[in-house]
Description:
It is built from ten helices and seven strands. The protein has helices spanning 12-16, 21-29, 35-42, 48-58, 63-70, 79-88, 101-110, 148-156, 188-196, 207-216; strands at residues 5-10, 93-100, 118-126, 129-133, 163-169, 183-186, 202-203. A seven-stranded mixed sheet has the order 4-3-2-1-5-6-7, sandwiched between helices. Helix 9 (188-196) links the parallel strand 6 and strand 7 (202-203).
Amino acid sequence: xTSEKPIVFCDFxxxxxxxxxxxxxxxxxxxxxxxxxxRKWKDGLISSRDCLEKEAAMIEVMPDQLYQFIDQFQLxxxxxxxxxxxxxxxxxxxxxxxxxxxxxxxxxxKNGLAEIPFFSNRVTIDGNQYRIEFPYDNNGCTRCGSCKGxxxxxxxxxxxxxxxxxxxxxxxxxxCALPEADTIFARGDLLEFCQxxxxxxxxxxxxxxxxxxxxxxxxxx
Length: 221
Ligand SMILES: [Mg+2]
Ligand SMILES: [Zn+2]
């Protein structure tokens, strides 16, 4: 066991949640019209904030329709067990997301995990209008809606003696978290990004993999 105290930060869409729920909502309720925007965002031509604002403006949905749609999704295998084990070991766990509170809260509540602190963009449904707001200033980042690098800085602070920051993610909205992290778990687009940039990242499929790898490396008791 190393002497550093771990703090775990985890992306939501496609990571803690098996599928990218935010993306699925826009794709489903826009009839696929959002895909061109997503392509531009992935190519770095528009910021995620721009992309999310334009996607939100494309869809109309009533709350009960939205929740019915979200009900098909699940958390990633081992997510609940992973969180419970960290809690039992007194290791802080935060979800940081460039998605939206409306479905993150719903999914956490549904899985008995309402106590997990999360930081994300904010969505309200007004009539059938899906309105997205960006409650955070992002310490100067103009790429993100809610910047994961800025959230880690806000929570941990700049001075980090004895702290081991562990980040778990799957996509391009996770990039700003990478310079803040001591240990990175990646899959999907994030893993490809790390490999292309020679950034050390550990591949995972589910949260049991992550638990095992943290224990093997002595980062978890
Ligand atoms: Mg993601
Ligand atoms: Zn950022």
